[in-house]
Each structure stands twice: as structure tokens, then as C-alpha cells.
Amino acid sequence: MNKKIITFPQLANYYVPIEYLLTHLVECEILKPPPITQKTIELGSKYSPEFVCMPFKYNLGNFIEALDLGANVLLQAGGGCRYGYYAEVQKQILSDLDYNFEFYSLTETDKIAVVSVYKTLKLLNPKLNFFKYLRVLTITFEMIHYMDKIDLYIRKNIGFETIPNSFDQLLSDMLVDFKNTTGVYNLNKLYRSYFRMFKRLEINKPNKNLKIGVIGELYTSMEPFSNYDLEKMLAKMNVEVSRYTNVTYLVITKRFNNKKMLKICNKYCKYPIGADGMDNIASAISLALEGYDGLIHIKPFGCTPEIGAMHILNKVSEDYKIPIIYFTFDNQTSIEGIKTRLEAFYDMIKMRRSK
Amino acid sequence: MRECYLGIDVGSISTKGVIIDESNKIIGTSYLWTEGNPMEAVKKVINNLERELKQKYIAIVGVGVTGSARKLIGSMVGANMVRNEITAHAIGTLSLFPNVKTILEIGGQDSKIIILEDGIVVDYAMNTLCAAGTGSFLSSQAKRLGVCIEDFGDIALKSDNPVRIAARCTVFAESDLVHKTQAGYKKEEIIAGLCDAVVNNYLNNVARGKKIKPPIVFQGGVSKNKGVIRSFEKTLNEKVYVDELGHLMGALGIAILSRETKLRKPFSFKITNEKFETKGHECSNCPNHCEIVSIYKNKKLIDVWGNRCEKGAK
């Protein structure tokens, strides 16, 4: 039989920990999907149902590009909305396209996520030992956690960097080192030294800078290509950006925060409304109370939980007097329209602030 | 020599130019069709303004540009202020109506609503999906009915009995319109119905969920249409103010913004003699295929944009 070449959908910089996890647990070659480009989304849209949500099309495009490069094992995850059907539908579409591959969904084999991932990986590597798995998984999550912490710092400060690209440069150095980490201790050391380096990067941050919170659907808020580098556009306007949604939050924090979140948005929303809808309402309220100047809500075209959240957010915006702008992304979205509305939003919050 | 500021608003259909002095007083205006060539249109606007103000001793010390071609024209004229239409319209309108609470704006291809409180913008929206209910929709329907778009409003006012036309989408509105003409409705009733349709579409799409409070100012090219004004007043049950200078608000606003920046950038009317050229090409360094536009002044490159990464910057 041919050698197994494994691939997975692209999501921001998270390929680093995923690659780490797979390299240490599975005896397959790993093929990182090529960076998302216009071609990825064209391929994805061509073979997807027209009205499916955007991330589906991106993921499918990633798979097709990787399959064309020789990948033959595909990994997909799942979640609490249409995301749960991604694996099954994508598998069907790709086999209809006559590709030869094995398809594994990480979250389908057991109810407990940790066990489910183990069971899936065990299919790929029958000799896999559960304790080794736990050890590598811990390091992977530690890595994700550190990356997210650094990201948080970057988002708050990158808009004020004095040397262009200094943050991005350091980040890519960090990712290379993280990838080659030797263990828990080494990773922790790397994290601390990089955090120090980030803090040493020169910034020119005024005392009362504008602060914008980004909320919304997880894929479009995390994958910069899918939101036309929205966070970079904001950085260019010298704005401090905050976003709660990241993998640490989705995989770990969210599980423990459900009750707290419901309590925060009790007045508007008494039960979770699917995926991260309720979380985003709670985040909006928290950000408003923290004194943020404005919120940007983003979602891909066709995202039902977020459409539900939007109507409630209108109310939040009124009650807490915080402006919220809504962006919907699909492959037809014109970047000029987004730039214009974003610029107007910036002008608006600046005017409000100066009053 | 008086220090003055030039504001240019380059829209899809029309190009507007305004010159103001230090006290925001308008001393010269020009308004003409863009006709698909923003650079030529701007040159013409500048020429017109030069002719108009020949006798007055003025020096332009700052230029602001807004509208959909703001980036291109901004580099062409060397603007010290390039800003979006929403901000420009708000600032311009506030200078004439300091108490305004709602600005309705319908232009050639886009329409927007701006909500203000105590002189600052608190909310806004812009049409994002469809051009139904904008100026170009009205002018194409005028052509279909064989009337001049300038007479559209007056004809609409003749009818007290507008027909109902589906306004959700341009294509459906058009088939509805054909059906109504074939069914024998009078032209003025159909035209009045179109005005209602534009207003309904605007209120259902752009202004959805926004609280429209008086005083209401209506502007943009379509505000010249008396039929649409009447429909707005009927539907909103409020007085809708339309200023004679309503079509110039964007240009006025951007001129004011240009004055408010500390930056001074002298501008010469001679710019109309320079030769400007743009070249577009698709970058082939990666599958993103960014469309890169380069602008040349007398064969010398002055600005490039459109690339998503460094690869395209040459």
C-alpha cells in the first residue's frame, strides 16, 4: 500500500500545534495544506452546495489542493452547528470527485472529545499508547495556549508598532521554534523568552487609544484570509483590538464558562442559541462594560447561530450605548465596501470619543 | 490672497467639486457627470472651478477627496484628506443643519442612512447587496418609459394614485413594471409607483432597524426627484428637508475635513495640463491574482495599490 500522507484544513497559525501533535503520534507523512489563496476558495465554491456556510468552502478547497499534492488521509473536526456535518458531506463530495483517500473525523468516534481524538488517531497508528497520547496532547494544548496568549498581546499592540512588520517577523520566528520544541519545559522557556522579546518591541501607544472588540463566528474571526485581514486593517488605523474567540477558548475555556456567560447575558438570552451565538452576546456585554469604543461582529454568509445573535446584539448596542457594525463575508464580498464601512466606523467612534 | 480648500466627490454617476474659504463658506461649485472616466471628470471640474474663480484672488492650500474613486483621484490631485463618503456627508450636512438627526442619502449606485445625536454620527448603514432603489435604477426605468430623468419627479407629482410595484429587487421590479404598463396603467401612475418603490426598498433594506427621528435631511442625486421626496414624507409622516446644495454635501464635507487637518498641501489648477495614466495588471506571483493598479503622472509612477502581500510590490 502507498505511504499515508495526512492533511487537515487550514486555520490561521494553528497548523503548528496540529502538525506537532500528528508528527509525534502518527507514523504518516504530514502535508500542510498550501496557504489559502483565491484559488482555494474558487475550488471550494465550485464543488460546494451554493448555500453552505463559507468555512465549508474554504475547508473543501484546502482538501482539494492538498489531495492534488498527493495527500491521501484527511482529518476534519466538528462542532455545534452545521460544522457537525462538514466531515460527512465533504467526504461524499470528494469521493464523488473520484479522489482516493481515507477520511477521519476527530470528534465522531466517542462522546468524550479527548477519547474520541485518541480513538481516531489509533486508527492511523494502531501501536499508539494512551499515555504517550496524553503527554503529547498536553504539550499541544500548552502550545495553543501560549500562542493565544501571545496573540492577545499582539492584537492589543501591533497597531502601534514603530518598526513596520516587527511583530509579524517575531511571530514567524516564534512559530518555527515552537514547532521544534522538545518538551513541556522547553516550550515554557520559549514562551517566556518570546513574550519578553515581544514586550521589548518598540511601540508608540498613546494613553487613550481607541479600542475595538471583534466578536462573531469562529472561523471568520480566526482565519485572516476569510475576513480580508480585518485585524490588519484595524491595526493600520492604530486601534487596539480584542477578541475572545480563539482555540483555547473554544476547546477549553468555553466548557467551564457556560454558566457565567449565561448569567452575563441573562437579560437577553436565557439559553445557548447554538455554536457561539450566546457567547458572543456575553462577550459584547463584557467588552461594553470594559469601556470598548466599538464592536465588530463578523460572520460568514449563511451562519445561522450568528444571525440569531445579531438581533439580540442590536438590543445590547442600544442598551449599552456601544456601536456595533456587522460584516458578512462570502466569496462575493467586495473588499472596497468593507474598507469604506470600516473607515466610517472608525471615524464614528473617534467622533464619539472626542465628545 | 485668500486661503481656500477644494473638496471633490467622485461618485459613480456624478462628480462634484466645491471650494470653501476659512469660514466654510462655499465660494465655488461644479457638478457634472462622471461618464465612466473619473480622471477626465475631475479635470473638467477643476477647469470649471478655475474659470469661475478667476477674478478672485485665492490659493488652494488643501484638497480633500471622497466618493468611490477617492483613492485614484486622491493620488492624482495630491490630496491631504481622503475619506469615505459616510463621514464626508455627515460633516457636510452638519455644517448646514447642525441639528440634523437623520440623513437619508440615495446616490447613483449606493444608498446610505446616517443617524446622528448631538452632532455626532452614532449609527449608519449602507446598501450592501443590491442596487435596487438607487439612482441608476430610476434612470434605467426612465429610459424604458421614454421620459427624461429630470422630469421624473414632476410627472410623479401629477398622480395621486401610484401603482404598487414590487421593490425587493431590481429585476423583479422591472418585470412588475412591464406587467403594469402592458395592463394599461397610465405613465404618471407608474412613475409615482416607482418613486414609492424606491422609498419602500430603502426603508426596508438600508434603514432596517434604524430609528428615523426628525429633523430628516434627504440628499444625494435622487433628492432632486420631487416624487421620491413626496413618497418619503408620506411614508415617514415627517417633514423631509432637501437642500438646494444637497448633491454637494459630500464635497463640502470633505473640503471641511481638509481644512481641519493641520497638514497644508498647496494645489495648482495647472494639474489639468498634466498627463495621467493608469495601468492595471494581474499579479501572477501566487494564485491570489491580485489586481494591481499603477498610476503614472507624465509617465512617472506615483502610486500603486491592490496587492495583498509584498510579492506584488515591484
Explained architecture:
The complex is a heterodimer of chains A (355) and B (314). Chain A has a 4-stranded parallel β-sheet, with helices on both faces. Chain A has helices at residues 15-25, 38-47, 54-68, 83-96, 113-124, 130-157, 166-179, 184-200, 218-222, 230-236, 247-264, 277-289, 304-319, 335-354; strands at 5-7, 29-30, 73-76, 102-105, 210-216, 239-242, 294-300, 324-329. In chain A, strand 1 (5-7), helix 1 (15-25) and strand 2 form a beta-alpha-beta unit. Chain A is α/β, with parallel strands linked by helices. Chain A is globular, with a radius of gyration of 21 Å. Chain B has 314 residues and is α/β, with parallel strands linked by helices. Chain B has 3 domains: 2-90 and 251-274, Nucleotidyltransferase, domain 5; 101-242, Nucleotidyltransferase, domain 5 (2-Layer Sandwich), CATH 3.30.420.40; 277-312, no CATH class. Chain B has helices at 38-52, 70-77, 85-96, 135-145, 152-157, 170-182, 187-205, 226-236, 249-260; strands at residues 2-10, 14-20, 26-33, 58-66, 81-82, 102-106, 111-117, 120-126, 216-219, 240-241, 276-282, 291-297, 300-305. The longest helix of chain B has 19 residues, at 187-205. At the A-B interface, helix 2 and helix 14 of A face helix 3 and strand 8 of B.
